[in-house]
Amino acid sequence: MTKKQRALKAIEALKELYPVAHCSLDTTGALQLLIATRLSAQCTDARVNQVTPVLFRKFPTLQSFVEADIKDIEDIIRSCGLYKTKAKDIKNMCIDIAQKYGGQVPDTMEDLTSLPGVGRKTANLVLGEVFGKPAVVADTHCIRLSGRIGLTTVTKDAYKVEKELRAILPPEESNDFCHRLVYHGRAVCTARSPKCDQCTLADICISCGKV
DNA sequence: ATCCCGAGGG
DNA sequence: CCCTCTGGAT
């Protein structure tokens, strides 16, 4: 079975298992998703969803973030971890959005990744979720599961995984598929001891029972 | 101990 | 490639 064939089978199987595919960060609009995604690094979505309502109540507009005291942002987001860099990134990305992009979150990979604290993972998520563009979100789950299932050969470099996946995934499927990999990575194909005995991908996965 | 939907710098 | 930033969950 080729990687592309394996991918198509995985797409269909996960579609059946997880009919609804969407980002579990609780946000409204591009700016909130951008900020919530930056907060989600090394942190659970549940924790981010606990923090963002407080954050967005205190800073309801782009301009309020531009004028924010970093310390106030830090105090609110501390429990998400990596709070110093995240707070600085949030303020600085808002400054750039205000000054370079007329107050609108940009809608291209190049412009998004030019923002402080916005890497390819965050940019892809926003491009897919907010702007409806084909995106491959190569996060920790996507990288781990793609490698295990046998869709990719590289395992460490996120950008290489993204490119390998883009080569075999139908563009119109990639966005939802990546979300479903996250669901599956949390529920079944966990980092430490994957539940291969109850995995819907058992018949196509090259690592079934071997991890 | 090891991992969580990362990004930037060396 | 590697490391660091960091709190919380398991």
Automatic annotation (TrEMBL):
InterPro entries: DNA_glycosylase, Endonuclease-III-like_CS2, Endonuclease3_FeS-loop_motif, Endouclease-III_FeS-bd_BS, HhH-GPD_domain, HhH_base_excis_C, HhH_motif, Nth. Keywords: 4Fe-4S, DNA damage, DNA repair, DNA-binding, Endonuclease, Glycosidase, Hydrolase, Iron, Iron-sulfur, Lyase, Metal-binding, Nuclease. Residues 39-187 form the HhH-GPD domain. The keyword DNA-binding applies. Pfam families: EndIII_4Fe-2S, HHH, HhH-GPD. It catalyses: 2'-deoxyribonucleotide-(2'-deoxyribose 5'-phosphate)-2'-deoxyribonucleotide-DNA = a 3'-end 2'-deoxyribonucleotide-(2,3-dehydro-2,3-deoxyribose 5'-phosphate)-DNA + a 5'-end 5'-phospho-2'-deoxyribonucleoside-DNA + H(+). Its cofactor is [4Fe-4S] cluster. This is Endonuclease III. Its EC number is 4.2.99.18. PANTHER family: A/G-SPECIFIC ADENINE GLYCOSYLASE/ENDONUCLEASE III, ENDONUCLEASE III. GO terms for molecular function: 4 iron, 4 sulfur cluster binding; class I DNA-(apurinic or apyrimidinic site) endonuclease activity; DNA binding; DNA N-glycosylase activity; metal ion binding. DNA repair enzyme that has both DNA N-glycosylase activity and AP-lyase activity. The DNA N-glycosylase activity releases various damaged pyrimidines from DNA by cleaving the N-glycosidic bond, leaving an AP (apurinic/apyrimidinic) site. The AP-lyase activity cleaves the phosphodiester bond 3' to the AP site by a beta-elimination, leaving a 3'-terminal unsaturated sugar and a product with a terminal 5'-phosphate. Binds 1 [4Fe-4S] cluster. [4Fe-4S] cluster binds at C189, C196, C199, C205. Belongs to the Nth/MutY family. The keyword Cell wall biogenesis/degradation does not apply. GO terms for biological process: base-excision repair, AP site formation.
